[in-house]
Design a protein that fits this description.
It is a single chain. By secondary structure, this protein is α+β, with helices and mostly antiparallel strands. The protein has 2 domains: about 90 residues; about 80 residues, no CATH class. It contains 4 helices and 8 strands. The chain has an 8-stranded antiparallel β-barrel with strand order 1-2-3-4-5-6-7-8. The protein is rod-shaped and about 120 Å long. The chain starts with a helix and ends with a strand.
Length: about 200
Amino acid sequence: MATSTKQIRELIGDNEIEQAIGLLLDYLYSSTEYDLTDSAVLQKSRWAEYKRKIVSGLAKNEDIDEIRDSLIRIVREIDNRSAKAETQQQKPYVPPRQTDFPPPPPPPPPVKQYVAQCFFNGDPNTYYVAPNNQIVVVNPMSNFPVVVATRTASMNPAFAWIYQFPNGFYYSIDHNGAIWGLNAFGMPMQMGYVQYL
């Protein structure tokens, strides 16, 4: 490629513009430098226009200077791209060092410790009792706990504590961990159980 661009430069310097354009286009048609090919075709049409102006006596020296400068810029760009490609091919592959990788993300915050889990018959959710007596369910989509009730002290000595909802509804938890509530007929019924952690 260096000899091709050198020959084109010599032809431009010798004022053999038509031959320089022909050699340049021959070279570019066999390459993948489509933007440079378009530029060279434009210079070919400007050269044809310049030759028509010569016949009619309207040609100016500035026209030929602009064509010559444009051709030189195209040849320089070919040389620059060629040098860049050769430099990239000569560089050996260097595997990335450990310092090239970003540091690992910080560990997730520690999981909130719970003191108990509550399981209800027919309910696939697990409810957790936090040390601050809040009862939460963990949203499976966001993994975010949502407070649903509170653990309060029981006034009845037969029960260890009360599972109290904000609307006043409650379940009683006995000393064995059974969760008691009332059925539709007002009769006590075991609704689930508590597992202490």
